[in-house]
Each structure stands twice: as structure tokens, then as C-alpha cells.
Write a structure and sequence with these properties.
The structure is a homodimer. The first copy, chain A, is of the alpha+beta class. Helices cover 41% and strands 21% of the residues of chain A. The longest helix of chain A is centred in the middle third of the chain and has 27 residues. Chain A starts with a helix and ends with a helix. The structure holds a DNA duplex.
Chain lengths: 250, 250
DNA sequence: CGTTTCGTTGATATTAATCAACGAGCGTGG
DNA sequence: CCACGCTCGTTGATTAATATCAACGAAACG
């Protein structure tokens, strides 16, 4: 943590608890993820109840939102940027269990302690919500629980796909499937495009796909050599989507 | 399906839709999983509402409860036996995404179509519930939704563990972790014991752990040679749990 | 402008997959 | 009852995929 704090301070001014001063969203009503995130459970007139308990915050790259085993005092909704979620084995091996994009929620299970770590990939904006206040709101508003369950079920579907990928797909299939999935997920957030942002490092991608950096790098190079993709700064442009779908093994 | 029907018929009489005549539980109140399964959401006096819509059924080994892509007309609660849940790739590769034990629920997301297959491993008893009636009941009873969400979150935690296993663990670690997890899960159902029932075949275990049968077989043999386990009919007895925990890589 | 990090590529090692053979158990049918 | 075919699990030999080790260039950063 000390190390990361240092990076934070180097990148931007940090008034308290890792939150940067770059001004966050002032009110949920103006948030990009208003109709995408859990807050889509609320009617406009209910939003102020929610807004009262959320804290709009910014974090620099590599900031930890929470760590494996830590008390879950807060839950989070990502409003901008990407968060990596991962578990660590005792010998340092890491498995990234997901990337949270804008609109995604961290803490659907309202856990007492977090069972994975969450770190900002690049700079991010999040809504931080005290767990207790949120639990109280969930108790009060049935549609919120329903929305939460919906989110949990979507996460579950994604997790199942990932199990198939990790258990039974080859390196090329994993990378191709990853690119197509990220494309779909970004399409939900922003307008659809063939250029897929990949703000995370090769190490992150490797730890997500159960591969090594070298294998990820080689596979991406191969797809580029085959003219299925073009590597661009912080992302790839998908040239031959049918080719990728064939490679992705459905 | 034709093949499996044949097996069903050979094993037991089958009056309709793959349900065997061996008499199922007559009422939820007498069910082994009364306080373990979703029905634990109900007080005793509410149970008859639930009992009215459930169908207690038996299935022979290899019977399919539902298939990937099929309309989800029913959801299920397992009351006896083990169900394998899996996805198939177009070329036949299979990934088992979970084993459902007594008390487990299939269809927490109340999906319109199933996105995986469910098959009885051995003979099973299940509560089959028409999806529509169940959805109506969930709308009516807030604690049921809460219970469902709790189940979804538990599944999610299991899925995350499995992603770590599939992405980052060695063959021996996978097998050791699998045995320890199965032990814990059986302990929830029946009394705790060092003998872990493994009613599923080696192929099933392999497809769950992202390995081949040969590797599973060799690894089990190695653990047995090391006196960490003893192989018994349809299961293993865990002799050296610390050794297994060390091998299981936390 | 040096230092560090990150991504790429090449050479080699290692793990687990594949290919192959065999024996035990089981149900079927002669 | 025994012989036959079949499935299942085990073990051995070999191969293939990916990990590991190593070197290097480019970009980022202080």
C-alpha cells in the first residue's frame, strides 16, 4: 500500500483515503452510467435518496479499492475507467477474475469481507457507498434487490463463460474470445466500434486468460500477422470479426 | 436423448418425461433439504404455498434435466444425488461448470433459456418447479428473492474459486483442491466425514478441472501412493488433510 | 538523460495432452 | 453358467502446447 500511495501522490494530489481532487460527478442525475448501473433501479424522484449515501470519487491508476480479506465497509459502482478484480495465491500467483467497466457494481453480494482485490487499471471514477447504508436501502427498496440480483446473474453468466475459456480453450481461442467479449462489453457502455480499448497491461490480460505475458503477446502478434486485428495504442482494432469468432470457439 | 431414454428404461420404469416411479418425497415438510434448499426461505405455514407448485420427481443416472439453449420452463432444487452442469463447445469439448449437490438450486437467475446443460450423475430426486409459478411466488415473497440472491452469491464465490483453479493451479493442486472442496460441500449436506463420495466419473472430474482423464487418474494415483488419500469405491478417503491443503494452493 | 517498465521475440524446458495398451467390472445373451 | 462386448480406470511412451529463461528495443518517467 505504501508503494501505491507513492504512485498516487506522484500522479495527482490526494486529499484523503486515495481519492483524487479532480472533481467527480456532482450528482447521480448527471452521471454517464445513470441508466446502466445499479442506480437504473431508481425512478428520477428516488435518486436523491440514493445520491445522499453515495460518495463520488476519483482514483489514480493502481489505486486499490479494497483487498482480499478486508472488511467490506463500502461497495462500489464504477462510473468511469476499468477496475481489475483478482485473487492472489499465497505464492504470488494471481488470477484476474474480471474487469469491471463503467456501470459495473462491486459488492453485489453485500459481503461482510471482500474475497478478492479490486484495483484501478487506469484513472477511474467510482461511486463509493457505505455498505450499511446500502444494505438499509436494499431492505427498503425491493427493485434495488431485484436489480442487484440481475447484476449477480449477469456476473454469473460471465463467470461460466470464463470457466469454459480457462478450462477448455487454447491460447488463440482465449485471446480471440477475450477481444470479442471486450468489444461487446464496451459497446454496452459507449457507442459500438471495431476498436476495442485495452487499458490493462499484458500481464493483466495474461492473468485473466490463465496464460503468460509471452503467450498473450505472441498470440496477439499472430492475429495481427494474420490481419485479423491491428494493434493500436491501448487497444486493438478488429479487422476480421468472423475470423476471430471462428478462432474464439463457441 | 434416445440413447439416454434407453438407459432410463433399462434401469427403471418411466411413466412420463423421464421421471421414475420410485416414489419421490410426498411433501416438502418431510424433505431432507427442508432447511438447506431455497425452501428454507419459508416458514412452516408458508410451505404449503410452495408445495402446491413443486413437483417431486426422480431421475435415473444420465437423465437430462435441461439442455443448453432450451427454453427454461422449469427450475429445480436438488433433493438427493448429484447433478452435473456443463457447457459444450461446438466441436464437442465439454467444461463442467459445477456439480449440484442436495440443497442446490438450478435456475437462480430465473432465465428464459438455459445457458448450460444439467444431467443426473447417478439416480437423483429433484423438486421441479414451473418457472412461471416460481417467478410469481418470488414476486410475492421478498424473502424468497433474498434467499435466491444468497444462493446466487454463493454460486458466484464458488465460480471465482474455480476460475483461480482453472487459470493458475497445477494438476495436483486442482485435484487436491477439488477433493477438499467436495468434502466441505458434502459436510453441509450430511454429517462430516473424511470419506468423500465421488459419484461422478473420471471424465466428469477431468472436465470440471480442465484436465484429461489420464492426468486426473495419474494425480489421484500419486496422492494415493503418497498416502494422502485412499481410493474407495465411488469416492476417496482423505488420510492426510494438511498434506492435501498444502497441495491445494490457497 | 539515465532508469525503469513494458512489450516483443527467440531458445529451451516442462507440464499435461495425446496415443496406445491392458485389466477389471458389468450387463447381455448364448 | 460362461463367453462376449462394452465401459471405465489405470499406466506407459511420446508429442505438443505453453511456460520459462533470456535478450532487446521502445516508451514513460523522474
Amino acid at each position: 500500500m505504501g508503494l501505491e500511495m507513492g504512485i498516487l501522490v506522484r500522479n495527482a494530489v490526494e486529499p484523503e483515503g486515495g481519492c483524487l481532487r479532480a472533481e467527480p460527478v456532482s450528482h447521480c442525475a448527471t452521471c454517464h452510467t445513470r441508466f446502466l448501473a445499479v442506480c437504473s433501479a431508481f425512478e428520477d424522484h428516488e435518486l436523491s435518496d440514493f445520491n445522499r449515501i453515495v460518495q463520488h470519487r476519483c482514483h489514480a491508476a493502481k489505486a486499490a479499492l479494497f483487498e482480499q480479506g478486508q472488511n467490506a465497509d463500502f461497495v462500489f459502482s464504477v462510473s468511469e475507467g476499468v477496475v481489475r478484480l483478482f485473487r492472489l495465491l499465497s505464492d504470488g500467483r494471481r488470477q484476474i477474475i474480471g474487469f469491471a467497466l463503467p456501470g459495473d457494481f462491486l459488492g453485489v453480494s453485500l459481503p461482510l469481507t471482500h474475497d478478492y482485490c479490486a484495483e484501478a487499471v487506469g484513472a477511474i471514477r467510482v461511486c463509493r457507498i457505505p455498505r450499511n447504508a446500502f444494505v438499509a436501502l436494499v431492505d427498503e427498496k425491493p427493485h434495488l434487490l431485484r436489480k442487484l440480483h440481475e447484476f449477480a446473474c449477469r456476473d454469473m453468466r460471465t463467470a461460466r463463460e470464463q470457466m469454459v475459456l480457462l478450462g477448455r480453450k487454447t491460447a488463440e481461442e482465449r485471446v480471440a474470445a477475450f477481444l470479442l467479449t471486450m468489444r461487446e462489453r464496451w459497446a454496452r457502455v459507449a457507442h459500438c466500434s471495431v476498436t476495442v480499448p485495452l487499458p490493462m497491461s499484458r500481464v493483466d490480460i495474461a492473468d485473466y486468460l490463465g496464460l503468460t505475458i509471452e503467450t498473450v503477446s505472441r498470440t496477439i502478434s499472430k492475429l495481427a500477422r494474420d490481419k485479423a486485428i491491428v494493434v493500436v495504442p491501448d487497444g486493438v482494432r478488429l479487422l476480421d470479426i468472423p475470423r476471430l469468432q471462428a478462432a474464439g470457439a463457441r
